[in-house]
Here is the input.
Amino acid sequence: MSKHLEPYQKAERSILTKYRKKLWNPFIGAVKRYELIKPGDKIAVCISGGKDSMLLAKLIQILHRFSEIPFEAVFLVMDPGYNELNRQKIESNAELLHIPITVFETDIFEVANKTEKNPCYLCAKMRRGHLYSKAKELGCNKIALGHHFNDVIETTVMGMFYGSQLQAMIPKLHSQNFEGMELIRPLYCVHEEDILAWKRYNDLDFIQCACRLTEKIAMNPSEGSSKRQEIKLLLGQLRQDNPNIEKSIFSSIHSVCLDTFPGYKTDGETHSFLEDYD
Here is the structure.
């Protein structure tokens, strides 16, 4: 008779067995390929309470347990103004999955929702700043976010369609405002559908989106829709004709041919092909 497993044990075992090829291998592949974790790192794993960040926390936990590379990890939950239900769900899920979280509170939602012009941008900027600041206070040199493969693809397409630029999301970057701090994205090669499958297999229920603005839109669809959601639906349609469409986009951002572009930006400066043409 098989030993009864606690929910956290089942979640961890499924990562290393049933979903090893879909979750563990691409996670480890990204860590190695992009050199995301180095000896002596102290990483603040940022947990929003959604499926992506909770899986990231488990992956980092397991890696810390087995890795030959010495590093530390703290599991950081920033409360930007969650309602009581969402706050409680994050804490109960962390307890269920045996993730030792460190919680700190901010007034980000309150501030961001007072602005009429691009509250999402302000919210994201403030979140990042608070996370960097708290992580540095705790002695960390890196923060880890739960952006996955599909976020990378959608961001690239959104930049083309709505930002008039070819701009991707890189696996890691140095902070411009917090010296010595770096952001890493260990789920860079993990597909969202596989995260969802792991969540369902383990009967886990995470918060969807705690943003008051998107909650309002969800209740009243006529008020607007997410550009990211539009791109997600478009890619889904394209995938019906070409199942490898997202893989092709992912490969393309690793193989940019600058010689074929009439213009490009680097370090904030715009350049033209004419500079080296003659």
Remarks:
- The mean pLDDT is 91.
- The first helix runs from residue 7 to 16.
- Strands lie at 42-47, 72-79, 101-105, 142-144, 172-174, 182-184, 263-266, 269-272.
